[in-house]
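User: My instructor asked us to take a sequence, write out its structure as tokens, and then describe one feature of it. I'm not sure where to start. Here is the sequence I was given:
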Amino acid sequence: MRKLSKIGLCFFSWTILALLTACGEKGLGEDDILAYVQNTSRITWGVKADTPLFGVLDIETRQIQGFEIDLAKAITEEILGEEGVAEFVEVSSKTRVPLLKNGNIDAILATMTITEPRREIVDFSDVYFEAGQSLLVHKDSGITSIEDLDENSVVMTAKGSSSVANIRAIIPNITVLELENFSESFIALKAGQGDAVTTDNSVLYGLASQDSDYIVLDETFTNEPYGIAVNKGQENFVEAINEALETLQANGVYDELYDKWIGSIMSNNR
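Assistant: Let's start with the prediction itself. The structure tokens for your sequence are:
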């Protein structure tokens, strides 16, 4: 397997406004993104920088690090070879699809659940991670199940997340505070503004790793398969990504990345 360390890393600290209005090298009418990235030897990935374990900004290096970052670099190498460059643009649950549609990024690799409504506007790769929605609570909260919440409870999550509809399908009148991201949701929980943070357990494990007073409940109440999103009509690019994922799973690289970033943290929460 070629060494992942040979892949270049560029992180653009553009503001969201600039990203949404900038004129990129490729327009919305780009015919073939796979041909484009092969010609430029680079893939621009939309990733999260506020989701511990999956993608978080390292203050000292000013680079985003995490499972999805390493996976993007590995996929880039499989598609473009050792000289391929993985570039990263920070996205949120709210901004990731607009940035993709505007041509600012080539693909979204940002804890994005594959859903039928989303399939109407983007195409997805094969599943690269199986998650499930759960609750992050204080260890002394007395909350051991979603059944301990009711219409008088308050939960926090990020804007643009599918978590809101999911929990309201179970508790229709529950109060949901939608904050800018999951880090802000965790801060609100610690400040006593609600009873729990709810989203995919994979994201919650990352938050819990920052403070041992908080735990993720074992119970999940949805299935949240993550996929890599690309613009509609890019079947060749989707196929290339799927082939890369299959290779990484077969040669053990995927398992190495999973163990590096996620496996031990989930075990420690038990």
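For the description part of your assignment, you could build on this observation: The chain has two domains: 4-130+225-269, 133-216. Try explaining in your own words what that tells you about the chain.
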